[in-house]
Amino acid sequence: MTADTTGELVDRLARVLDPVAFDDRAEPRTLGQLWDQVSRRMTAQEHARRAIAAGWTSTETP
Known about the structure:
Elements: H1 3-17, H2 31-53
Helix pairs in contact: 1-2
């Protein structure tokens, strides 16, 4: 698996794990709300990396 493929897989899995973290709403948000979203996104991506490292693979074809 290449770095590009792994990165795409991490992003797809992270979006499944926490879709709210990737919700790009149009209405204005406070700095606290933006920070919460960024933190959730980083957490989802880290969980996805750990799952992939533990052997998780996607059964879907992109």
